[in-house]
Amino acid sequence: MSRFAGLRKPLGVAAVAAVATTGGAIAFSSFSHKTNFDTPAVELKRDAKGVIIPPQFPSLKSRADQLADLRRHSSDSEEYDLLIIGGGATGTGIALDAATRGLKVALVERDDFSSGTSSKSTKLVHGGVRYLEKAFWNLDYPQLQLVMEALRERKTFLEIAPHLSVSLPILLPLQRWWQAPYFWAGTKAYDLLAGSQGLESSYYLSKSKALEAFPLLKKDTLKGALVYYDGQHNDSRMNVSIAMTAAMYGVTMVNHAEVTQLEKDAEGKIRGARIRDVISSVNGDAEGAREFTVRAKGVINATGPFTDAIERMDDPSRKALVAPSSGAHIMLPAHLSPKGMGILDAATSDGRVVFVLPWQGLTVAGTTDNPCAVEREPVAQQDEVDFILKEVSKLLTPGTNLTRSDILATWSGIRPLVKDPNAKNTESLVRSHLVTVSDSGLLTCAGGKWTTYRQMAEDAVDEAINTFKLSPQTMSMPDISGAGDGQFKWTTSTACTTRQIRLAGAHGFSNKLPAQLSESYGFDADVAHHLATNYGDRAWDVAAAEFGSSGSARPANRLAAAYPFIDGEIRYGIRQEAAQTASDIIARRTRLAFLDVNAALGSLPKVIDVMADELKWSDARKKHEWTESVHFLKSMGLSSDKLSITREEVIKGLHNKVTSEEKYAPSSVRAGSALQELSTGTVLAKKETPNQV
């Protein structure tokens, strides 16, 4: 029996599932659930002359003050309800959920917020079309439930952080006629499973319309295309925003603070942890680096790929929970994806899928799914990079001549998949999550994926309240909106409310914000758009950090000529987002290292100088930062022959010299040209497509 003939059973299941989730009504007409971002929740104010009055936001406690708070909680008389280990999406999500239920919470992260897997995703907020296909083929209802859960959470992203997440159309090229009904059924099932939480309806494009949308598509076997919708976000900016929102709501939030030991009472129950301040160690402050105890009624392990390391602090004989899997990605010039539309290759040589997506003005392509070791700074392996490059090249017209020299950066994230002893490979594992409690009381939340971080957090806090017998308090929460009139003050509930809690930056965001920033500060259009869509209404504070009291008498200082990142982001990142190292800035407060590793290297002298000015670094600390940052860039694809480059050589521009040993040839000049090519290809609005289903 052919694969096409075998579709009847899974497609029948798809139809049944679709009916079940839409109240029994199937309608294949177009629908749209676009959110209107023309009107912000908090409107800007203007003076009598019509000049914009920038909003005023509450300041975040400094890292030093947060660390002092942490040190004070060293006894039973002064303890937290929860101590969370891990500052990725899961850990910060748990912290926000717990704090907004009236619990007293602290979070510590060994490195930086989002320094691991949470900054190295494919940047999608999605239900998972490939998981949906597996659910139907294998009649796997738990996997179907995972897709439905993720589709619900996808819409929440766009509502609580509209500045950081968007709806993205993704094109599925059809190379054989039988794929049309197969993919059509799949995308329609995907639409219908989302129900009222859907984005926009999928639709069909003829061959000519598909090529109009994406002129570089391989033409000879193309029959047409289907377009469906998923979400996309800036992952590390989202993670930092969750962390800072939690801190504003009372969480003691400390990055670069390492757990060295779990503390147990006389009955063997975990009641806290020993902590070491990594920054004090780096600065040579022996007293500040001395370990201290933090007490808590419950400790939560939310360390992603490092879950088992914390588990074995509790019990060295503990069996592994996590099956780590590497997900490699490459950054390519902008013209390789049409503006505002991604591509899904569902017919790769090994049966996996590869995404080619517009992101931050360039193109991200990935991913792989291979078993791997757990390490702090994983590097995309050459065979993984070659696989992605080969699969992307297969999608394109032969004259495109895509080569390794087109790669601007590479990275690999380690997925913390929950281990299934019966699974033969990590690609077959469901991306579901696990909440478990050990005999000594260590609560671990593992597995899952970015899209479902909020649901994972809700489940973990529910379990923590029950296990540790916590008593959520009714508390008045501050107004973090910048409205200035207290209209967004609110009172906590014992139930989870994070579906309704806007993250910092969301209240004053609208589609008009870039123009308003340019009106007030004279920003170039690309800088204004970047600030609005990465900081939301906090872009006003970034602008103030850039210009200080001088207003906008000068152009903004860019970190790299071809990119919209500016000096003010460094100062804001330190003052309001707890940035402590140069890598924090180039990789997670801005995304320059992910976009163009060579441009990130070129920005390091300026980044380190500004940070030294803000944080009063010694010359020794500046040298340390240079060494550590260049080493970090190796994990972003920096060629080995540049790992010994000096600050003076970079200032002279020698980092732009391409040598015979260089694996990748990122070029700020080429990237700048790519940014100018954003207009290549036309994204078709559905009202313009007569072939729409």
UniProtKB/TrEMBL annotation:
InterPro entries: DAO_C, FAD-dep_OxRdtase, G3P_DH_FAD-dep. GO terms for biological process: glycerol-3-phosphate metabolic process. GO terms for cellular component: mitochondrion. It comes from the Eukaryota. It is an enzyme of class 1 (oxidoreductase). Keywords: FAD, Flavoprotein, Oxidoreductase. The keyword Transcription regulation does not apply. This is glycerol-3-phosphate dehydrogenase. Signal peptide: none annotated. Residues 81-454 form the FAD dependent oxidoreductase domain. Its EC number is 1.1.5.3. Its cofactor is FAD. Residues 496-622 form the Alpha-glycerophosphate oxidase C-terminal domain. GO terms for molecular function: glycerol-3-phosphate dehydrogenase (quinone) activity.
